[in-house]
Write a structure and sequence with these properties.
The protein has 270 residues and is an all-alpha fold. Helix 4 packs antiparallel against helix 8.
Length: 270
C-alpha cells in the first residue's frame, strides 16, 4: 500500500473504534489521512509536481519536503495523543506492540541495506551519519561521542543501547512488556510463547558486544552484525505472525497450537 492508502486505512480503523478515542486523537488521525490524500493527489501519476525525479537518488523539491514535514507533524500528533490519552488496556498494548514490531523491522532493514555487504573498515562517515539521522539518533550520537561516526559506536547506539528509544533493543524490550499485558487469547500458553520469543530476541541483542559485532571478518565485512540482523528479522517475522494469528486474524482454523509459534519461510523473513 502507498502512503495515502495506508493513512486512509488508519482513518477507517479509527472510525470503527471512535468511541474509544479522544476527540483530539480522532481529529489528528483524520487530519493525517486528509494530508496524505492531498499529497497523493498533488503528486499525480508522473510525480513531477513537487520536484520528485524518481528512485532513491531522485531529488526532492522544497514543496514536497514541506508537504512531507507537515504530514510528519500530523503523525507525530497522532502518536503523542495516543500515548497521552488512551487507556492502558489490551487495545493500547496491541497498538504499541504493532508500532514496536514495525519500527524494529524498519531498523533491521535499513541496517541490513546500509551496513551488510560493505567493507566494515571503509564505511563512509557520511553514510553512517545518514543512518543515524534516519534513526533520529544523530544528536544523541554527537552528544555522546563528539566524533565522526564509527561502525562500532553506531552499532552500540542503534542496536544494543537500551536507553535509546529508537534502538533495536528498546523496541524488543517494549515488545516483551506489551505482549506480557495482552490477554492469553484462545490457548493458555500461546501468549507465553509470544513473550518468550520477544524476550529471547531482546536478550540476544542485549548480549551483543558492539565492538565484536562490528569487527570485520575474513572477507572484510561485519559478518557477525549481518548474522544478528538476519536472526532478528526472522524472529520478528515469527513474532508478528504469531501476534496476528492470536489477536488480529479472524479466520477459522487460524489459531496457533498450544505453546508454539509459527515457522516463517526464509524468503518471508528476508
Amino acid at each position: 500500500l502507498g502512503l495515502p492508502a495506508t493513512l486512509a486505512a488508519l482513518a477507517s480503523s479509527a472510525a470503527s473504534v471512535q468511541e474509544l478515542l479522544s476527540p483530539e486523537l480522532f481529529r489528528a488521525v483524520d487530519d493525517a489521512a486528509l494530508a496524505g490524500a492531498s499529497l497523493g493527489a498533488s503528486l499525480g501519476p508522473d510525480r513531477t509536481r513537487f520536484g520528485w525525479t524518481g528512485g532513491l537518488a531522485g531529488s526532492v523539491g522544497p514543496d514536497l519536503r514541506q508537504a512531507l514535514e507537515r504530514l510528519l507533524g500530523d503523525l507525530a500528533a497522532v502518536a503523542g495523543l495516543a500515548q497521552e490519552t488512551m487507556v492502558r488496556g489490551p487495545g493500547w498494548y496491541l497498538l504499541d506492540a504493532g508500532r514496536r514490531v514495525e519500527r524494529a523491522f524498519a531498523l533491521v532493514d535499513v541496517l541490513g541495506s546500509t551496513l551488510v555487504g560493505r567493507p566494515a573498515h571503509h564505511l563512509p562517515a557520511g553514510l553512517l551519519e545518514a543512518l543515524l539521522g534516519q534513526a533520529a539518533s544523530l544528536i544523541a550520537y554527537r552528544r555522546r561521542y563528539r566524533s565522526d561516526p564509527e561502525l562500532a559506536a553506531v552499532t552500540g547506539l542503534l542496536v544494543v543501547d537500551g536507553t535509546n528509544p529508537r534502538s533495536l533493543r528498546f523496541q524488543l524490550d517494549a515488545l516483551v512488556h506489551d505482549i506480557g499485558h495482552l490477554p492469553e487469547g484462545i490457548h493458555a500458553f500461546t501468549q507465553q510463547a509470544l513473550v518468550g520469543e520477544a524476550a529471547e530476541l531482546a536478550s540476544r541483542v542485549a548480549a551483543a558486544d558492539p565492538v565484536t559485532v562490528a569487527r570485520a571478518g575474513p572477507d572484510g565485512h561485519a559478518d557477525q552484525l549481518a548474522g544478528l540482523i538476519d536472526r532478528t528479522r526472522a524472529g520478528l517475522s515469527r513474532l508478528a505472525t504469531g501476534i496476528n494469528l492470536q489477536y488480529i486474524a479472524h479466520v477459522p482454523g487460524a489459531q496457533l497450537p498450544t505453546g508454539t509459534l509459527p515457522d516463517v519461510p526464509q524468503e518471508a523473513a528476508s
